[in-house]
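FAQ: What does a multi-protein file look like?

Like this. Sequence, then tokens, then the next protein.
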Amino acid sequence: MANEDTTFNVDAFQNAQFSDANSTEYVPVPVGEFPAVIDKQAIRQAKQSIILDVTWKIDSEEVARETGIENPTVRQSIFLDVNENGNLEFGKGKNVQLGRLREALGQNVAGQPWTFSHLVGQVAKVRIAHRADTTSTPGNTIMRAEVAGVTKL
């Protein structure tokens, strides 16, 4: 990427000629348990579901070398239980995945004010699993890394 002391020339870059081929496959974060930090969180709506997406930055030089990515990340998606008014549910059996995440981060404390933004910058150990994706590229199976669990570091 361009360094602060130089000006990036978009015209020169987009008109540059290349002879190397680009990679067509990602190397997923390997299966295992790794220390990680929450880099960002976002809430989105997909059809009738509200989903919390947590992006974990894996803190492992070995994973960075293996994937070829300087700061490898993996996303954890948590479906949220909300009531008809759009409020987060706290009843028995509601938002269990969110509760487990907050517990691993020491943030699942009754009476203590909490917001989703409190997640960012928190550290934990993430357990990575692979899932076969056959829908993104029909005829090919792509292995996707996903967070299968989170525990205290």
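And here is the next protein:
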Amino acid sequence: MLDSLAVVAFEVVTFGAIVVLVVSGLGIIVSMMGIFNFAHGELVLLGAYVTYLAHSLGLPVWAGMVAAPFLVGAIGFVLERLIVRRFYAAPVAAMVATYAVGLVIRETVRGLIGGLYLAVPDPLGGSFQLGDLYVSKWRCAIVVTTAIVMAASYRLLNHTSFGLEVRASLENPVLARASGISTGRIYSATFAFGAALAGLAGALIVPVFTLFADLGIRFLIQGFVAVMVGGVGSFAGSLVGAGVVGALNASLPWIMAPVVADVSVLLFAILLVKVRPQGLVSKRGG
């Protein structure tokens, strides 16, 4: 019994960390710009594909994992400059535009890998034993990496001049521009940072979930639900929502069919938003 509970607890922590890592980039973009990036799941997919590509070329898997956030962040910067910034005044149009971008990315990857499910080995491999429980080294690495990335992101956004400019642009863009802050530059950097986090998430999770063309769809849905549960406009709320959604997605399949578990998470989110429209954390800016 205790072993089963330990396994469930480990799955909850691991999957919660994965969802937090995926949602963090989306939460930053939503908090900063007030738009949902519906291409975020495909940015996760690109991170996974970069890791697979490095492996298929004979490079170490970790090399692809290091490259993924930088390459995907650069792609996010270009997308913001060419497409996203044209729709800041029309959030619905921005969602449609980013959905179209995501569709292009997804179908491009599908054309490259076909309908295959491609395995990528994790850089660590194996597991270690805690009592009667065998714990995956790589899943532990994901948890540790997520904690480090979240701590670094918090410090960047709250204890640096860049973070001060980001928070000023978020709270009052007009006053920020009057103070000499280039909000356009801040928006580009923020979108690129959110995209880089998505790329890192994809790189870290591909050994767990394998690579397939629709990989990003699942995480886009979970990210959207997590942001709504946590609170739109709050980065901290996005992380809280990610923890809640990740925990439910990891624990419910142990007591009910996976499809029923997915539906239950959505129903929970709908009821919560109905009762508390502002989400669990409503303070703008997190």
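Q: Is there any per-entry metadata?
A: Some entries carry free-text notes. For the entry above: The two ends are 39 Å apart (CA to CA).
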